[in-house]
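DUF3579 domain-containing protein
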Amino acid sequence: MVSPNSKELFIQGLTQDGKTFRPSDWAERLAGVMSQFRPGGAQPGSHLNYSPWCIPTTLNGTKCVVLHADLREHEPMAWDFVINFAKDNNLQIAEACLLPDPPAKA
């Protein structure tokens, strides 16, 4: 169950039984489909970069998609699509917060 108070969800490229989800570019594909959903709506050329509400990344060597709760508020059907994708593929979902990298030491 997803908490209504959580701001970010991590959809991990691991199934509930710990197997790596395939294809290997699933996170980029999913985020690409969601690129039109963004603050201010789709703009010309916005399909060329990812939405700040659905970002592919790699954490600890595992492909993930970081899904921001603002997507749920802006477009509930798009949110449901991503959540159902994760559920249909038996992917692990974690509520968390993506922190920025610490500044490099000089």
